[in-house]
TrEMBL record, chain A:
Residues 1-22 form the signal peptide. GO terms for cellular component: outer membrane-bounded periplasmic space. Pfam families: SBP_bac_6 (PF13343). It comes from Atopomonas hussainii. This is Iron(III) transport system substrate-binding protein. The lineage of its organism: Bacteria, Pseudomonadati, Pseudomonadota, Gammaproteobacteria, Pseudomonadales.
Automatic annotation (TrEMBL), chain B:
Keywords: Membrane, Transmembrane, Transmembrane helix, Transport. It is a multi-pass membrane protein. This is Iron(III) transport system permease protein. It comes from Atopomonas hussainii. It is found in: Cell membrane.
Length: 337, 569
């Protein structure tokens, strides 16, 4: 009598577990490219069909602001594909749950949080680049620059757009990278020179490259991924990777604290896997797992060698000071001409 | 003394029937104010209170304000904002008044069609004019030479863009103000042999005074608080409103965003004071004895009207036409081949059509809920006896949303509705919260339209109703509603199209299942898919145009069936 009952119980238990799993919905906040969302979810579902990803996607600034504003009552279960610096900000506010995904030790140590268990794990990196419009350059007789310093040459006056560092993470990335590469004094002197050539500061990081792509400016300081995309769409762009080295930023994933979702852990486990890294490599030249990345069209052959040693902690700690100095130096003068 | 006291009826505290009725109406208005408390004041408080707290929520007094003023550039930003807003107001109100005059005081053919065309800017997501202006006057623009040395990226671009999108707001208020005129005034002017110019200044203009002031404040505040246009086309010309974007989106400093929001609210308070002032002087223009004005055919007037309308129509047509072209072109400006490929939203991941469906649902619900709430509240405040202080508070609340930038409202909704101890937090992430937020966001102009329409109805209607012992409810149903039907339709359309195109507040509130088309437009553009973004924006515009045509047909039907009594001879 007891044995069948036991079987029955076990069976119903399994059934329950199965149906419960089949219905797991996971709310994931992301700043990934909208057109990539379906691809990312499909690849993940190949291994974990039982979890349905419910995306909330927007630009980095909006998603970060939403996550912070929802702090008292988080709605996201996990974050997959948001700037590392944004996740560090969430970490400071105590919003992230520590979890060591299976296989996290295989990632490049730069691409995971130092804490144990790590509160976020890196996925891939994107890097600064100059989008150079060859058609407009010909019109205005501009030679392609090869370094950041080149951009201060008088010939580029009024031809350069870059993101406003107080509005755009990419803009701040550039500024903090110059200060780290050239040192503070020379860095500011460099920006003084660059400011003379700036046509306008934009409010989004991809805008300068888009302006270069549509001929609204000859030169846009932006990031490589956007440039490659525009080039693919048919823009007469050349991507230039300045010789002094490139600022860079990673995309990362994390679990939001307080949700205790097993599905979120499953997602993170998958997000550090080799298969996931191959997926990242379809758009990004540098990924978190060493040895996986294959060359990507329009990107340089060994992109890692071009990156500066970016000190994210320093950049975050000094952000307020740098921004206020930047604004007092360049905002007032912006329309003096 | 004692004698008279004892002579008083014994039940001194019992209310007379009249007092009871007043109390009942006052309670209704209190309920309306309760709605404002939930939809507007509560959320705003939860955000604006951050302006006196530090990043961790500790009270710091006015330290944030000091820090903001000390950071410099405020005076510059403020003077830029004031200049942009004033210039746009003068241009928009003059043009909108001229257009409203041409549409209501002449017998130009195709007036309905012309009005639909003039409303086009409000039917399009904000990306369209921005894109158009750049394609028209930018570095590669086909008319760049017109601007000479001046760049479109700067004050010129901001004023052009702002005029474009605020024009329909002003037009809607002014048409409502001028639609019902009393023919007897014009007959009197004719009998007195007043010149047409004198008639204009003594009859037409005073009749539209309330609408003119409302329109001016609406445009001023809309431009003053908008950061969408300056963000895209402002170049290095800094205005106050873009600072919110820098602080909140760029640096996630909510407390500084709250500081700027508080500063941006100040003009709304000014508008409120002005509104009270003008309102005192406004008499009903449509008295119970009014004879509806029908413009007579007059070639000179028609020609004047056409001349006034042409430049406005031309500019709107140019901008919209360029936007449609932008949605068809392969890769501006280097591959000008045309194709319909950009309209294949199914090809686009991110669920183009799903988002479009969500937007339609949002727009329909906002229209139904919003029109009912706005009109009922306006009726309560205008056509029922109300205590003065309550009325003033209500007026303030209904004008407040105008001065709240969408971004501020969206964030405020997160803080308020997502709070763990808010019993309504289940709404967060649902379609319901998008509807509520959108109704609150666009409340003011809808309210002003309802109010303008209601003000034109003579209070004698109620007096007569009362003497016939008809309840006010019955008056509302049988007299006020049918009389206000054109304004009701206008409000419904206004809410529908704004819900279709709005981005700034809902971008913080949509959930995984409620992504919206207008947000998708921004995201596609951000991702470099400019032409598909333009295509989606054109699709939204076409939908709104369809709504507008439906609105036109309904209006025509209504005027045949409910307004023929106006002809009442």
């Amino acid at each position: 009598m007891r044995k069948p009952l036991k079987h029955l119980l076990a069976l119903s238990g399994t059934l329950f577990a199965l149906t419960a799993q089949a219905n797991t919905e996971l709310t994931v906040y992301t700043a990934l490219e909208a057109e990539d969302l379906q691809k990312y979810a499909e690849r993940f579902n190949q291994d974990h069909p039982e979890i349905t990803i419910k995306w909330v996607r927007d630009s980095t600034g909006i998603i970060t602001a939403r996550l912070l504003a929802e702090k008292d009552n988080p709605r996201a279960d996990a974050v997959w594909g948001l700037a590392g610096t944004s996740l560090m900000l969430l970490q400071q506010q105590g919003l992230l749950e520590g979890y060591a995904p299976k296989g996290v030790e295989q990632l490049n140590p730069l691409y995971r949080d130092k804490q144990n268990p790590p509160q976020w794990v890196g996925m891939d990196a994107w890097m600064a680049a100059i989008c150079f419009n060859t058609v407009e350059a010909k019109k205005h007789n501009l030679t392609p620059p090869t370094s950041w310093q080149d951009l201060t040459k008088p010939e580029y006056q009024n031809h350069i757009v870059m993101p406003h560092p107080a509005s755009s993470g990419t803009g701040y990335l550039d500024v903090s990278a110059w200060l780290q590469t050239f040192g503070e004094d020379k860095g500011w002197a460099y920006m003084d020179g660059l400011h003379q050539n700036i046509k306008s500061y934009t409010h989004s990081g991809s805008k300068p490259c888009k302006m270069a792509a549509s001929g609204e400016a000859a030169i846009g300081i932006s990031f490589a991924f956007r440039g490659a995309r525009e080039k693919e769409n048919g823009a007469p762009l050349e991507l230039i990777f300045p010789s002094e080295g490139l600022g860079w930023e990673m995309e990362a994933a994390a679990i939001i604290k307080g949700k205790q979702s097993d599905a979120a852990k499953t997602l993170l486990d998958w997000a550090v896997s080799e298969k996931a890294n191959q997926l990242y490599n379809e758009g990004y030249a540098i990924v978190a797992m060493p040895g996986v990345a294959k060359p990507v069209k329009h990107f340089p052959a060994e992109p890692e060698k071009l990156l500066i040693k970016n000190d994210f902690t320093w950049a975050a700690a000094n952000r307020e000071r740098i921004l206020s100095q930047w604004q007092s130096r360049y905002e007032g003068k912006a329309e003096a001409q | 003394m004692t004698v008279s006291a004892t002579a008083l009826p014994p039940a001194r505290w019992a209310l007379t029937a009249w007092q009871r009725e007043r109390l009942r109406w006052a309670l209704w208005l209190v309920a309306a104010l309760g709605l404002f408390a939930v939809l507007l004041l509560g959320p705003l408080y939860s955000l604006l209170s951050k302006s006196v707290a530090d990043g961790n929520g500790a009270f710091v007094g006015l330290a944030n304000f000091e820090a903001y003023f000390a950071s410099g550039g405020i005076a510059r930003g403020l003077s830029h904002s004031l200049w942009i807003a004033s210039a746009s107001t003068v241009i928009v109100v003059s043009l909108a008044f001229a257009s409203a005059w041409a549409l209501t005081r002449t017998r130009l053919p195709l007036r309905g069609g012309i009005q639909a065309l003039l409303m086009l800017p409000i039917l399009a997501p904000s990306l369209l004019p921005a894109l158009s202006l750049i394609y028209l006057f930018g570095e590669q623009g086909i008319f760049k030479s017109w601007l000479g040395e001046t760049s479109i990226y700067g004050p010129l671009g901001i004023v052009l863009g702002s005029c474009f999108w605020t024009f329909p707001h002003a037009l809607m208020i002014l048409i409502t103000a001028m639609r019902h005129a009393d023919a007897r005034h014009y007959e009197a002017a004719e009998v007195l042999r007043a010149s047409s110019l004198r008639t204009f200044f003594t009859v037409t203009l005073p009749g539209a005074r309330y609408g003119l002031v409302s329109a001016a404040f609406v445009v001023f505040i809309l431009v003053f608080t908008d950061f969408g246009v300056p963000k895209v086309i402002g170049g290095n010309y800094e205005v106050l409103a873009t600072d919110i974007y820098k602080q909140v989106i760029g640096q996630q400093k909510f407390e500084m965003g709250a500081v700027i929001s508080v500063l941006l609210l100040l003009p709304a308070l000014l508008a409120f004071v002005a509104d009270r002032w003008v309102q005192r002087k406004q008499a009903a223009s449509l008295t119970a004895r009014a004879v509806p004005y029908q413009p007579k055919a007059n070639l000179r007037r028609e020609l004047t009207g056409a001349a006034l309308l042409t430049p406005v129509l031309g500019f709107i047509g140019l901008v919209i036409g360029m936007a449609i072209y932008a949605s068809l072109v392969r890769y501006w400006p280097y591959n000008l081949e045309l194709s319909l490929r950009n309209y294949e939203f199914g090809r686009m991941d991110g669920g183009g059509w799903t988002a479009y469906g969500n937007s339609l649902t949002l727009a329909a619900l906002t229209m139904l809920v919003g029109t009912a709430v706005v009109f009922f509240n306006a009726w309560l405040s205008e056509r029922t006896p109300q205590p003065k202080p309550l009325l003033a508070l209500f007026q303030l609340c209904s004008l407040l949303p105008l001065a709240v930038p969408g971004l501020t409202l969206g964030l405020a909704y997160i803080f308020f509705f997502n709070h763990p101890s808010n019993p309504l937090n289940g709404l967060y992430g649902s379609m319901a919260i998008l509807v509520l937020c959108t109704v609150a966001h666009f409340y003011s102009v809808a309210h002003l339209t309802a109010l303008t329409a209601l003000k034109q109805l003579d209070h004698e209607f109620e007096a007569v109703g009362q003497s016939l012992r008809a309840s006010r409810w019955r008056m509302l149903r049988q007299i006020t509603l049918p009389l206000s039907a054109p304004a009701l339709l206008d409000i419904a359309l206004y809410l529908f199209v704004n819900a279709m195109t709005t981005v700034s507040a809902v971008i913080f509130l949509y959930g995984p299942d409620t992504a919206l088309a207008a947000v998708a437009v921004l995201n596609m553009d951000e991702a470099g898919d400019t032409a598909p973004a333009a295509a989606m924006a054109v699709t939204i515009m076409a939908t709104c145009l369809l709504a507008k045509l439906l609105h036109g047909a309904l209006s025509a039907w209504l005027s045949r069936h409910t307004q023929h009594w106006r002809g009442g001879r």
